[in-house]
From TrEMBL, chain A:
Cofactor(s) required, per the database record: thiamine diphosphate
Domain Dehydrogenase E1 component stretches: 40-308
Pfam families in UniProt: E1_dh
Superkingdom of origin organism: Bacteria
Keyword Oxidoreductase applies: yes
Record GO terms (molecular function): magnesium ion binding; oxidoreductase activity, acting on the aldehyde or oxo group of donors, disulfide as acceptor
InterPro entries: Alpha-ketoacid_DH_E1_comp, DH_E1, PdhA/BkdA, THDP-binding
Keyword Oxidoreductase among record annotations: yes
UniProt keyword terms in alphabetical order: Oxidoreductase, Pyruvate, Thiamine pyrophosphate
CDD domains per UniProt: TPP_E1_PDC_ADC_BCADC
A GO biological process held by the record: branched-chain amino acid catabolic process
Protein name in UniProt: Pyruvate dehydrogenase E1 component alpha subunit
UniProtKB/TrEMBL annotation, chain B:
One BP term from GO: response to nutrient
GO molecular function: branched-chain 2-oxo acid dehydrogenase activity; magnesium ion binding
InterPro entries to which the protein is assigned, alphabetical: THDP-binding, Transketo_C/PFOR_II, Transketolase-like_Pyr-bd, Transketolase_C
Presence of keyword Protease: no
Recorded superkingdom: Bacteria
Enzyme class, UniProt record, top EC level: oxidoreductase
UniProt EC number: 1.2.4.4
Lineage, broadest ranks: Bacteria, Bacillati, Actinomycetota, Actinomycetes, Pseudonocardiales
Cofactor entry: thiamine diphosphate
Residues covered by the Transketolase-like pyrimidine-binding domain: 6-181
Protein name: 3-methyl-2-oxobutanoate dehydrogenase (2-methylpropanoyl-transferring)
Organism, as annotated: Pseudonocardia ammonioxydans
Keyword field: Oxidoreductase, Pyruvate
Length: 358, 329
């Protein structure tokens, strides 16, 4: 870490080189914890692969994959405590699973059952946000409410590089800084907003550098380096918990797949560029380090792979079954008590359903 | 014994004060609501009396205000936020329509948002272009929002208390031309249920249906009509969503004629919805088509032209004259 705020916001912090070697001067990580981190990376990768496969099989309507971003997905969840909140976007299914939510519940949204498949209160995970950057303000509100009550809750708010162009990104950063809200903003800079490259979003020296204008620390970190992410996000969480306010973290990463299955990334980026990022794979980097450190062998790898396969089988089984939907539920949650108009419309639908069944 | 007289601003202030006292989860925030007490003084003294934790100024950003309120409501608070003027609420529109209205449904009721968005609304004050909008149609068209517009100072108190107590998000439209008019207010009268219209004046010949700032105009029209031998009733909706079909239909069936009065441009408006509902529900009781007397379909006019835009007594009575009255001869 450097004392110069702009340098800290521009220089990419790294702990593991792309080759898997420890960066000079960085203290060696706890290998036990890192093996657990590696296990979570493998699970996240397997979840991305499984969900994408389910789209190809027609079981899910769509899946925005975070393949290539698994280190961000794992780190943002693992630095949080039970009482903390996570605010994910549509691309953060693996982060929600890493937080402990059953992936079947998360993905049931993409099967078309309902707009959110898990209970956000139980898990302290907000619904996945489809509109960009709007959820960042909710994160600030959750954090500010906790502070007003004297609780030490921390809120992890996720968005992508494209979202930093939205007005709500600006308002959320500014509100968080002004109220010293306990929020960590993690921008997963995966270089593309569907097809539009980063250069069309911003010509700032970095996205983290925007933090300086709000009067909060901005930190740029290698988003494919689990060790660096754990360290950077862990520090930001500790600052927030200690009442020192928000941090803007920019993770330098890459979206390895198209925006979704409906997108065609070959129209706007080159194979060479993608190949370059294959070499920076977040899993292999940790794997290489742990193997060299003697903390990971074939037997342990097999165990981890088996756990991942078990998880994938559970996802297939859970999402393979057709979920029954209840048409009358359309009216159940709009208001705490349905309005007379909704009661009337529900009765109309009930009549239609009775005719369908007859 | 008569109740104390207060302005609508004072009635709203009293409601906020009583709600802050009654429930520690209530917080009030927005632009200039702290030391200044709001540009209309609705939050006067709240910052002084309840402190920075309960009533505070925010950065000047309406999406930020509403978005932060969503998060606070998610986490146990009952935020009451002020949009400084109707048109200044539009930057928050995405938050209102995409999240405030939908989060409870999205989460199958796991996350309800007990929050109130107070909006000084409508015209008649000689204000500039962006200080006079009647924006109720945007909100009423969005499922998940409760939309309330008091017409009297007593209702301003009671409905704001009810809005703050509601488990659902409420858009609370305050007719700004009434902020400084004094009326008797009984704060002990209890909290009226949201969703119930009230008959302000019974009338056998026709029913004027109004809400918010149009209610006193309708009452004045009925007063004028009475001198001309016509008995017009006035119905104050109080709540646009939920809509009180029952009371509205009962009144119109009794009188057989209806005129809807509202300031907002008439095309695709709340007034249009009311006219359609009345026609659907009361067709066989109607002596004449339901008429609408609304603002013209133009942007809110400059102050010198305002009186030509706003529905006034004469325009209401002209509409009443067209309701297929049988010739006395």
């Amino acid at each position: 870490m450097t004392a110069d705020p702009l340098a800290q916001a521009i220089t990419v912090a790294r702990a593991l080189e792309e080759t898997g070697e420890l960066v000079e001067g960085v203290p060696a990580p706890d290998t036990g914890a890192l093996v657990e981190g590696y296990r979570r990376l493998v699970l996240a990768r397997r979840l991305n692969e499984q969900a994408s496969a389910l789209v190809r099989q027609g079981r899910l309507a769509v899946y925005p994959s975070s393949r290539g971003q698994e280190a961000c997905q794992v780190a943002c969840a693992s630095v949080l405590g039970d009482g903390d909140w996570l605010f994910p976007t549509y691309r953060d299914t693996a982060a929600i699973a890493a937080r402990g939510v059953d992936p079947v519940e998360v993905l049931s949204m993409l099967r078309g059952d309902w707009h959110c498949g898990y209970d956000p209160v139980v898990h302290k995970v907000a619904p996945q946000a489809t509109p960009l950057a709007t959820q960042l303000l909710h994160a600030v509100g959750v954090g500010h409410a906790a502070r007003l009550r004297g609780e030490d809750t921390v809120v992890m708010a996720l968005c992508g590089d494209g979202a930093t162009s939205e007005g709500d990104f600006h308002e959320a950063c500014n509100f968080a800084a002004v109220f010293a809200a306990p929020v960590v903003f993690l921008v997963q800079n995966n270089k593309y907003a569907i097809s539009v490259p980063l250069a069309r979003q911003s010509v700032a020296p970095s996205l983290a550098a925007k933090a300086i204008g709000y009067g909060m620390p901005g930190v740029r970190v290698d988003g494919n380096d689990l060790v660096a992410l754990d360290h950077t996000l862990g520090e930001a969480v500790a600052r927030a918990r200690a009442g020192q306010g928000p941090t803007l973290v920019e993770a330098d990463t890459y979206r390895m797949e198209s925006h979704t299955n409906a997108d065609d990334a070959t129209r706007y980026r080159t194979d060479d560029e993608v190949a370059e990022w294959v070499g920076r794979d977040p899993l292999r980097r940790v794997q290489t380090y742990l193997r060299a450190a003697g903390a990971l062998d074939d037997a342990r790898e097999d165990e981890i792979a088996a756990v991942a396969e078990e998880m994938a089988a559970g996802v297939r089984a859970g999402l393979g079954a057709e979920a029954a939907v209840a048409p009358e539920e359309l009216f159940a949650h709009v208001y705490a008590t349905p309005t007379p108009q909704l009661v009337e419309q529900r009765a109309g639908l009930r009549t239609e359903l009775a005719f369908e069944e007859a | 014994m008569s109740e104390p007289k207060m302005t609508m601003a004072q009635a709203l202030n009293t409601a906020l004060r009583d709600a802050l006292t009654a429930d520690d989860a209530v917080v009030v925030f927005g632009e200039d609501v702290g030391a200044l007490g709001g540009v209309f003084r609705v939050t006067d003294g709240l910052h002084r009396d309840f402190g920075e934790r309960r009533c505070f100024d925010t950065p000047l950003a309406e999406s930020g205000i509403v978005g932060m309120a969503v998060g606070m409501a998610m986490n146990g608070m009952r935020p009451v936020v002020e949009m400084q003027f109707d048109a200044f609420a539009f930057p928050a529109f995405e938050q209102v329509t995409s999240h405030v209205a939908k989060l409870a449904n999205r989460t199958r009721g796991a996350l309800r948002l007990p929050m109130v968005i107070r909006i000084p609304y409508a015209g008649g004050i000689g204000g500039v272009e962006h200080h006079c909008d009647s924006s109720e149609a945007y909100y009423a068209h969005t499922p998940g929002l409760t939309v309330v517009a008091p017409a009297t100072n007593a209702d301003a108190y009671g409905l704001l208390r009810a809005a703050i107590e509601s488990p659902d998000p409420v858009v609370f439209l305050e007719p700004k031309k009434h902020y400084f008019a004094k009326e008797e207010v009984d704060v002990g009268a209890g909290v009226p249920p949201i969703g119930r219209a009230v008959v302000r004046r019974p009338g056998a010949d026709a029913t004027l249906i109004a809400y918010g700032p149009s209610v006193p105009v309708a009452l004045a029209a009925a007063e004028q009509a009475a001198t001309e031998g016509r008995d017009l009733g006035v119905l104050d909706l109080r709540s646009i969503v939920p809509f009180d079909d029952e009371t509205v239909a009962a009144e119109v069936r009794r009188s057989g004629r209806a005129v809807v009065v509202a300031e907002a441009p008439g095309f695709a408006s709340v007034a249009s919805e009311i006219a359609a509902r009345v026609s659907e529900r009361c067709f066989h009781h109607l002596e004449a088509p339901v008429r609408r007397v609304t603002g013209f379909d133009v942007p809110y006019p400059a102050p010198k032209l305002e009186r030509h835009f706003l529905p006034g007594v004469d325009r209401i009575l002209d509409a009443v004259d067209t309701l297929h009255w049988e010739d006395a001869a």
